[in-house]
Amino acid sequence: MSQNQFPKLHNAMWPGLVGKGSPGAEPCIDLDTMLDLTAKAEVDGQRFDGVDLFLFDPHVSIDSDDAALQRLGDKIAQKGFVVGSVVAPIWPPTGGGSAMGNEEERKKFVQQVRKGCRIAAKLREIGVRPYGIVRIDSACSVNDWAANPKENTKLIARTFREACDVAEGYGERLAAEGEICWGGMHSWKLMVDLLQKVNRPKILGFQADMAHTLLYALGFNAPEHALLPPDWDWSDQDKFDEAYQKLTKALRPSTIDFHVAQNDATVKGSGTHEKTGHHCLANDTKGKLDIVHHAGFWLRDENNQVTRSIRHLCWDGCMFPNKIMKKTATWNNILAAMIKVREAHGWSETPIVKPAKPVKSAKSAKTTKSPVEVIEIASKNPSAKKVTPKAGAKATAKKSVAANKSKLK
After folding, report:
1. CATH for 236
2. pLDDT score, position 316
3. Do the Cβ atoms of 189 and 215 come closer than 8 Å?
4. Coil, helix or strand for 204?
5. Is 2 within a domain?
């Protein structure tokens, strides 16, 4: 059994949508099926803790009202899950616009961020989303960006700052996912530069995906920023680790969301999605990453200490073939890999409990003690014993835990 409680383990739901549903592509997989597949995964009694969502039809409408979001929250909770991070549909085909586009396009981008933050905040309010970010990118191609790199980067940074203003109003944080297909974000150096230009570190951070950042190291779409030579043949693992360490040292301080993934050093596109890092199965023999080892480059600091800054890990199976996604073994193998990452780089938190203030019984007027109440989460003493509230305190404890988690953010 797992000894560490954190980071929590999530599965992404968007592989059922991304790169699917368009002419020539595979059909979409509905949210109920994705939830069922995730719920069936089990390794030695351990299961996924939650899911990350794409706020787009047919999974979750970006225009969902409060009643629809309550139903969504109930559905997810019934599976024993919580919601973590959510993806705002900021691209032109999904109702958004380029972050470096004209005024109308940039307005659409920010509007989709606003809608995404509203949903994220509402899911937090109803008690099914204890952590997570709202994911964005520049929503523009590398070729379009390259027409005027300096000015286009300024525009993207301006749009991101406006999006930060929106997110802050909802009490949310944004994470920009670095991928080789998004203009102005397609290399590790450009990503660092963009984050610095936005300069809103408390609101905007980096979402690191192991498949995408591997291609950062190889310099796909930005050979001038490659950390390994063009003819790299993977014969020297230490050399790769040195390059990956340089990359993670630059981006880890800004990383607030993390995708565990495998990559075979190739790219893949599907449907309307441009070519980006090829997500492989966790046990793919062609995978270039030692998942547990290389995850530690993101989850541990320069002194090899666990940062504890990532509350949940998400597996991104983006553009997996449908027949692969519908196999139970796929998700069991993925869950097993994520459990190993948590065991190697995770931690535990023990609730500190104390009796609530005495209350008087209305019937007898005598002083009696109310049920035990959880008041804060402590992580300084992982070996401390857990205290289980009495049965009558179950509801009270749950409400208190949720409230205190919110305070700790």
Report:
1. 3.20.20.150
2. 85
3. no
4. strand
5. no
